[in-house]
Amino acid sequence: MTNSTDENQHPARTRPLRRFSMVWIVPIIAMLAGLWMIYDTWSKLGPEITLNMASAEGITPEKTTIRVLDVNIGKVTAVRLSPDNKSVRVTARLDAGTDSLLSVDSRFWVVKPRIDKTGVSGLGTLLSGAYIQLQPGKSSEQKTEFQALSSAPVTGPDVPGLRIRLNGQNVRVLSVADPVLYQGFQVGRVETAHFDPATRQMNYQLFIEQPYDRLVTDTSRFWVASGLQISATAEGFKIRTGSLETLVSGGVAFDVPPGRPLGGRVANMTPFNLYPDQDSIAEQYSGRHIDYLAFFDESVRGLTVGAPVEYRGLRIGTVQALPYPLKSRKRWVLGERRIPVLLRIEPDRIESFTPSRPNDWQQEIEHAIGEGLNASLKTGNLLTGAVFVDLDFNGKLRDQRMASIDGLSVLPTTSGGLAQIEAKVIALLDKLNGLKLDTTLGNADQTLAEGQRTLSEVRRLTQRLDGLLAQPDTQQLPQDLRGTLQELQQTLNGVSPQSPAYQQLQQSLSTLNQLLREMRPVVRTLDETPNALLFNRSARDPEPKGATP
User: Fold this and answer.
1) Angle at the Cα of 226 (from 230 to 384), degrees rounded to 5?
2) Radius of gyration of the chain (CA)
3) How far apart, in whole angstroms, are the C-alpha atoms of residue 400 and residue 414?
4) How do 179-182 and 252-255 pair as beta strands?
5) Percent of the chain at pLDDT above 90?
6) What are the residues whose beta carbons fall under 8 Å from the beta carbon of 32, sequence distance 6 or more?
7) What is the β-pairing status of strands 270-275 and 161-168?
8) Global model pTM greater than 0.85
């Protein structure tokens, strides 16, 4: 009872609960700080990219950086194998604001210590470790997955210059970063190189720096420039040497062929053919041509496909096929004993002074055949045995007509070069075999024997003369002869014009001459009247008296 009374006297008091407790201030502040850090980190995060690489050598997650112009803009976050386990997929996070650096033509590669034909690079990574270099592109199209390059690109996209494409078949394989030369001076580099199985040829991309890009014209020709090239042709041995770099790895050279116009400038990515060497430019001619057949009735050893066809030393064509397969005659070797050779006449080689249309060339050659034009084999080099085809006129082959086989015109041929010399030597030997050399040799032996006897007699006579000249009397003869000459000189001095004898003789001759002039009338009178000495010339000739009767 008492307890109930006390409870009624002191009722319970209630207080309203506090809506916020000071205990929660610290967790709330920590939560807000965490949210701010999350927001700050998220706001500073850039795009995430994926790089496909052949290997992850030198790549470490959370350590390997991504740089642009040596400025860190990101870091590798993960490295894992590709789904096919044949490559590596590297994930990296870039800084905020780097989205503009990622385009379809951006390029990535790993920078590490490297020694190659371009030099030594990446030495700074020996201490800092490898890093990934980013080369921004120019395209506006964005991309986040890239194929990393195996090495640094030769040139950047911002470098001014000209890029061209080369297609080569049966040429020496070039490598990326090989030099591009113009007359021995480096003007660019090989950017890419790959083999196309479909076309079975090598495809290259070259970069020519400014201002040398203007040297590339539509008449330029490109060839493989090896460090040392030795060739033996119909013109002889040729040796070419390049720079030390091309001697080690090779390169590409270009120029305008001699006699060709400089041409005009070309556009970017213009395709060109790549020739094995500089001489192949003249051999692998791609201009207008006219094909002719020539049948040679002699050995064609030394004649090869690509050999020149010349007219009096001027190249006007190329040997195209040897032997040429005839469709109409299958047994040409045993049947005709002549070897058919396909000759390609190329008008553009001498276009400056030749007709401009192929029909004009055909008519000109047909007319020349009527004047005696013919083809013959001649030796271009005695050391190598190289042979070329020579076109020239022969007056003995005039009034010929051009034949045709398998739709191809046939050029007349004659033996030439060593074949003519061989034929003359054989003819000379045949004549020598027909001579009666036994009788001739016998007479020669007899003549030699007589000559030997004559020489023996001459030798004995010489010995006698030596003995005669050695005698004292013979040696005294020059002194006696000298005295006789002196006396003769004195005698001649006595009859000189100044001597008295000569003057008396001159006076006697004058008197004799006067006497002859005075006797001339007497002689004339005696000649006219022989009896003038007996009778008086004025009296009449006496007449004999007659007999007395």
Assistant:
1) 15
2) 58
3) 13
4) parallel
5) 11
6) none
7) parallel
8) no
